[in-house]
């Protein structure tokens, strides 16, 4: 992976991580309920689950790419269209409303870790999302394992940092999302549309 490609992946990962998904909302809830230190278990579980899904998608895609480079081009176009569709849906979606944390959530460290991991690993949308995103940055003539290490580590660091910020600022982020949620959705939706439209043309 060239430095320019990695930098583009870093910027893309940051924009995606800032969009509150199931793991970000779980970290936010656990941060409000248990404090940001305890929520570290949740965050680590979520990041581990996302990297596992990412690896599953990447090596599955890699098997197709090894058969024919045309697969990579096709996956880029289909993936780009899917990202545009996600962006349009996010643009039109109502603001996120975060209810008060529910009592009875796991309080032990491994329980929080498991909750984070399962939230990421069992979300079918994660498979679809990474299957659409990763081909935009894969190179057919480079080591798949090396690309996975770079992209997996980059995404893990970005996701960890963003989820920790959510958990640490839980009491401030909840009312902020309620106040500017629609504008936030439009910004994030615009990011997805731009990514989906621009990356396949590189």
Automatic annotation (TrEMBL):
<dbReference type="GO" id="GO:0005886">
    <property type="term" value="C:plasma membrane"/>
</dbReference>
<dbReference type="InterPro" id="IPR001123">
    <property type="entry name" value="LeuE-type"/>
</dbReference>
<keyword id="KW-1003">Cell membrane</keyword>
<feature type="transmembrane region" description="Helical">
    <location>
        <begin position="6"/>
        <end position="28"/>
    </location>
</feature>
<feature type="transmembrane region" description="Helical">
    <location>
        <begin position="70"/>
        <end position="92"/>
    </location>
</feature>
<dbReference type="Pfam" id="PF01810">
    <property type="entry name" value="LysE"/>
</dbReference>
<feature type="transmembrane region" description="Helical">
    <location>
        <begin position="40"/>
        <end position="64"/>
    </location>
</feature>
<dbReference type="GO" id="GO:0042970">
    <property type="term" value="F:homoserine transmembrane transporter activity"/>
</dbReference>
<keyword id="KW-0812">Transmembrane</keyword>
<comment type="similarity">
    <text>Belongs to the Rht family.</text>
</comment>
<feature type="transmembrane region" description="Helical">
    <location>
        <begin position="183"/>
        <end position="201"/>
    </location>
</feature>
<keyword id="KW-0472">Membrane</keyword>
<feature type="transmembrane region" description="Helical">
    <location>
        <begin position="144"/>
        <end position="162"/>
    </location>
</feature>
<protein>
    <submittedName>
        <fullName>Threonine/homoserine/homoserine lactone efflux protein</fullName>
    </submittedName>
</protein>
<keyword id="KW-1133">Transmembrane helix</keyword>
């Amino acid at each position: 992976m060239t430095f320019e490609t990695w930098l583009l992946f870093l910027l893309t990962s940051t924009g995606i991580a800032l969009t509150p998904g199931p793991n970000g909302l779980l970290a936010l809830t656990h941060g409000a309920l248990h404090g940001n230190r305890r929520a570290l278990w949740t965050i680590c579980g979520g990041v581990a689950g996302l990297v596992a899904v990412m690896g599953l998608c990447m090596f599955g895609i890699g098997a197709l790419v090894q058969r024919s480079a045309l697969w990579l081009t096709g996956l880029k176009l289909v993936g780009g269209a899917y990202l545009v569709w996600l962006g349009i849906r996010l643009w039109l979606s109502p603001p996120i409303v975060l209810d008060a944390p529910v009592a009875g959530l796991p309080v032990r460290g491994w329980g929080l870790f498991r909750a984070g991991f399962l939230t990421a690993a069992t979300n079918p949308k994660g498979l679809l999302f990474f299957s659409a995103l990763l081909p935009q940055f894969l190179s057919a003539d480079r080591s798949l394992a090396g690309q996975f290490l770079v992209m997996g580590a980059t995404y893990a660091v970005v996701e960890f940092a963003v989820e920790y910020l959510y958990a640490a600022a839980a009491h401030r982020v909840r009312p902020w999302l309620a106040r500017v949620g629609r504008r936030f959705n439009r910004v994030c939706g615009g990011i997805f549309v731009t990514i989906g439209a621009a990356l396949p043309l590189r």
